[in-house]
Amino acid sequence: MNDPQDVTGVWYGRYFASSAGVEENSFIAHLDEMAGDVSGTITEPDTTGMEEVRRAFVDGDRMGSRLRFMKQYDPAGPLAHSVAYAGTISDDGTEVTGEWRFSGYHGSFVMNRETFRAEELDEEVAADEDIVIEMDEPIPPR
């Protein structure tokens, strides 16, 4: 991923409601971006008590630092509506902030991810390879 604003990856987020009747909630988004097209899935705790976890599908696009997507709840679940999200990606690609809306309801959201430089990961692997494990004499089979 050469473009730090490419949204491919795992994002941890939270949405907040400006409208009564919608509770704030956390979510995990698994996103894939290909040539500006964004797809993926979102899971979040079900605050209604109907299910343990709500699942949704993501379909949208990214242009520069602008991200737009529709979150469509799984039609097989208790919620079947979609929610429109629009946000701005930080320059370093680790945070998206924006707004969501559906059927007169609206609010804000934020989602974050960790990024690692390739050099950091290479150093981690090299450090693991340098670990020497000393073992006592093998235990004979019984």
Helix content: under 10%
Estimate nothing, just give the exact number of structural domains.
Answer: 1
The count of DSSP E runs of length 2 or more, i.e. the number of strands, is 8
Shape: extended
CATH class: Mainly Beta
Order of helices and strands: EEEEEEEEH
* β-sheet strand percentage: over 45%
CATH-defined topology? Lipocalin
Query: N- to C-terminal separation?
Result: 52 Å
What does the main sheet amount to?
A: 8 strands, antiparallel, barrel
Tally of contiguous helical segments: 1
- The Cα radius of gyration reads 20 Å
Strand arrangement, major sheet: 1-2-3-4-5-6-7-8
Class per helix and strand makeup: mainly beta
Query: Which architecture would the CATH scheme give at its second level?
Result: Beta Barrel
Classified in CATH, the superfamily is Quinohemoprotein amine dehydrogenase alpha subunit, domain 2
Low-confidence stretches: none
Mean pLDDT across the residues is 88
What can you tell me about this protein's structure?
The chain is mainly β and 142 residues long. The chain has one domain (9-129): Quinohemoprotein amine dehydrogenase alpha subunit, domain 2 (Lipocalin, Beta Barrel). The protein has one helix and eight strands. It has one helix at residues 118-129; strands spanning 9-17, 25-34, 37-45, 53-63, 66-73, 82-89, 95-102, 105-112. The chain has an eight-stranded antiparallel barrel with strand order 1-2-3-4-5-6-7-8.
